[in-house]
Amino acid sequence: MTTNLEAVERKLHVDAEQARWEAFAPRYEALGARELTAADVPAWLAEWSDVSAHLMDVGARLSILKDLHTDDQAAQDAYQAFVAGVVPPSERMDQALKEKLLAVPGYVPGPEFALTYRRFRDEAALFREANVDLSVTHEEQKARHSVLTGNQKVTLSGEELTVPQAKMRLDSPDRAAREAAWRALSESNLGLAPGLDAVMLDLIATRRHLAANADQANYRDFRWKQLDRVDYTPADCRAFHGAVRDEVVPVLSGMVGNIARELGLDTVRPWDYNRNNLLDPQGRESLKPFQGGAALEELALKAYEGLDSDLAARFTQMREGGLLDLESRPGKMTHAYCSYFPTSNEPFVLMNVVGTAEDVRVLFHEVGHAFHGFYSGAAQPLVWNRWSPIEFVEIPSMAMEFLTLDHLDHAFTPDELSRYRQKQLEGVIAFLPWAAQMDAFQHWLYAQAPENVSIADLDAKWLELDRTFHPFVDWSGLDEGARAKGWQYYHIFQEPFYYIEYAMCYLAAVGVWRAARTDVAGALTRYKAALELGSSVPVPELYRAAGVDFRFDREHIRGLMGFLRGQLAETATA
């Protein structure tokens, strides 16, 4: 009998010959050699988009395979060979093609391409030949992080667990069991820390070098341009950090304190606080609504069938097409994400499920990303116009966490559904301080930290920020070494400066859900229409299309905190 993993492996298979530069070079060279007039540009762009999609497709499949098999050197080598052998010449050709396009006399892009044309101009100005090979080094350093964390094990009571399996024990109503799991995870993390410290120092040096090559004052400024952040500034981010500190941290502190009092806890220890799943105030076991990836898929399908038939059909396509890999296994990267194959307009979701309600939320989140790929890919022929800027890209995923709340009667009893809904609302409040802390740390690291910054400096800064954004956690009598290593997190290594977007989008997702409380059909129509716009319009226009404002200022945050507190009170009395 064919297993799900076998179906996934077939979907991800890449012939070795198709992963070499020679498979792409003739098409790129033909584009570069062609005479180009303004009238020729649309057809020429379509050809360039096609070969770019093919290259992205191969890269995505190899990347997923190395994440599914962090313990397989052949999978790691295949991806690194692609990164070293295909990405550099493709980046050089893309730069040459951008310059060719920008030099076409008389060409004026239409409205559907104007934004991408502007981005091409800015990307061409940021390009430096020296950064092509340096970017290969950067990817190799990030791969070291993936291998280290993908092979991490946790030993608890003589049992060897994956990280997701160990983290599930943190949700136990038994405080001693939570503490044992926390200590086992901390011991495992601290054992891994020296290796990750070394990777981080290498990454910092490489990232500073990338910035200097591009004539940027620091890596934050370089990344700002690379991520095309034109709608807000570093000062806006600093204001967000302050607003979260003043408007959200007190709400979260009070919420966590109330739970502790109801449980009879005199203090909140590290094993009493999990931002993804706050303790149940009645001391009940955490919700475990399914067992195994197949059961989670069935649970989700029924929810989508209740919400929208087209969403259900697209999820079915993923189930039947080898586009989901949900089980937690040794040697598999512990993070969850959605990838995308542009040639076939197919998304792919990787997870590590262990049977918790948090897994349900994460699946809805990642499949929300998948819907973004489906809808933008169907509406936007050019590959660069698909998906969206990162300030919007989490709205499809986070909104789906909320929009499915009223379609889970089959998965939970009424009491359980009330608990799940409460966890979702609490999760927004608990997430915002974490997001602010992550973003503030990176602003310091890449724009303010000294030239000779050390790991001790990183640890000290993280401790300072954690005491600011999570002051209610009592570490007295504990070695704070584990706390100081909280910066050793996926995005810090793999996606620098990609985190405040989660906060922006969570705020917007709450707005989408608030509108759906009175008009779910209208909210879904706007949701799909915004997804179809892809990356063809600016960020504020995408937000307006979804029915919300692009805001993350103090007043907006204060208003949403009031709405969430009201919803929590309504849930508590339901």
From TrEMBL:
It is an enzyme of class 3 (hydrolase). InterPro entries: Pept_M3A_M3B, Pept_M3A_M3B_dom. Its cofactor is Zn(2+). GO terms for molecular function: hydrolase activity. Residues 171-558 form the Peptidase M3A/M3B catalytic domain. It comes from the Bacteria. Its EC number is 3.4.-.-. Keywords: Hydrolase, Metal-binding, Metalloprotease, Protease, Zinc. Binds 1 zinc ion. It holds the Pfam family Peptidase_M3. Belongs to the peptidase M3 family. This is M3 family oligoendopeptidase. It comes from Deinococcus taklimakanensis.
